[in-house]
Amino acid sequence: MEASEIRELSAEERHSKLNDLKEELFNFRFQLGIGQLENPKKLKQIKSDIARVKTIIKEFELKDKEIK
Length: 68
Hints:
By secondary structure, the protein is mostly helical. 84% of the residues lie in helices and 0% in strands. The longest helix has 27 residues, at 41-67.
């Protein structure tokens, strides 16, 4: 998921996306532990997506603080 796509989402949708990605990461880690993970590169991609979403959420929070 690209940053521009994330920025277009509403605040609620960004938080929902973050929760979905965290759940997906949990499931992939579980699959890795039991040896059923088909694509290990997907773990790195999900971690990057989580970091990207968190960064954009923080950007919007800081913008809101500057305005107030």
